[in-house]
Write a structure and sequence with these properties.
heterodimer; A: 255 residues; alpha/beta; 8 helices; B: 253 residues; Rossmann fold; 7-stranded parallel β-sheet; 7 strands
Amino acid sequence: MGRLSEKVAVITGAAGDIGRTAAQLFAGEGAKVVLVDVNGDALNAAARTIGNDAVSLVLADVTDPVQVQQYIQSALDRHGRIDVFVNNAGIEGVVKPIPEYPVEIFDRVIAVNVRGVWLGMKYMIPVMMEAGGGSIIITSSIAGIKGSPLVSAYIASKHACVGIMRAAAMECAEAGIRVNTVNPAPIETRMMRSLEKGLMPETPSEAKGLFQQMMPLGRYGTPEDVAQLMLFLASDESSYCTGGVYMVDGGTSAA
Amino acid sequence: MHRLEEKVAIVTGAARGIGKAVAVLFAEEGARVVIADIDPMGKEVAQDITERGGIAFFVPSDVSKVDAVKKLVRETMSKYGKIDVLVNNAGISGGIANGLEIEDEAWRNIIDINLTGLHLCTKYTGLEMIKNGGGSIVNMSSVLGIVGCPISSPYSATKGGVRTYSKAMAVAMAPHRVRVNSLHPGYIDTELVAQVLKDLGDPEARKNAEALHPLGRFGKPEEVAYAALFLASDESSFVTGSELVVDGGFTAQ
């Protein structure tokens, strides 16, 4: 009996390292999983990696309300209901101080990370209300509760994720829909490779070393570390957990 | 399921309430559970677990006394040779007196049990965990370790202390791969909470307290136990220094 037996989960940003790993873990625990991403090739590659016919794919741009409704409807057409929503799609932007940060990139980061998350909530909540409940997990970050230089768009967007989560948790508590964030510190992903290169283009591994030094556990986390926390929050084991910020950061925010 | 297979876990205050639910769940997940409590009912909890095919034994313990804590650790080490998990759950409510009303003796008592006792268990168990190459310590705090309420000042002093103590110990023990996290339940359906509500003498007290939680109800001891299970297991190996909230939305508003 898996921990997500009989459950249907929709995961956005499912072609990324964390999304794909969560999808694999959830499928292994008995869930039917719908993978959503804007990148078709990466989505196909993710499905091949997972290699489990409990997963299906939907191509969608989370910033477009029509496509958000479409991915949700696609999941409903296939499975009849949705129990778990991992609102995970996100981009990192660039590494520049605020005065030099391009406005278009700021707008794009907010569009995917905030508007995309919020649109997901807007169209998913009525589906879960109809069904009498559900669990929504928004991927925030340590950057959702702390500041650091050079990634202002990302930080603003991840703080906003915590705000959206709290607002939704309050609105939906009576309907039995739980809403929480997961907040990772640096994880071994494509996103961190991009940020390391943005910080130190000539010596990105030096940037990684600097980040790791600030972390009590002295290392990045793995996508599996984040996926395990998502699994706990997705399952009925966390039935009294809502409105919470759940860190998976190797102790970084504790120091 | 075997999420704590082969792990040795000490659970303090495991004779009833949250501690008992933690001990029972951990045993179901394959742990060898050491039930520590000042209350002799702990023996029956151990017996029940054993009768259902789990592994548990009872060590009568007053966590506020250093000799009792050393004995608890010594007995566990001599039986199993290691300690993988410590759930520091033993605690009292301190009644319904706030900082202006509480008697000096009662203040010292709640500090001794909720804070000093938790520290003593962390210290002596932590030293063994470091020798063994790692471990997980779960410290029972409360939503009242994050916010205050009119009758909670002594309790909040201890539970707030647990919260930041856990972060400091997490940073200190991270190089040794010992993780330390605090757990923050809302109001949970236990005898401790029932007694506090009774002492308030107000028939509406329970309904009013339930209404403080967006989910509209108290939590169940099992719901806290599952959170403790996640923190105790290797599934949370990148989670340390965190405050894991199990509170029906209490602190989100």
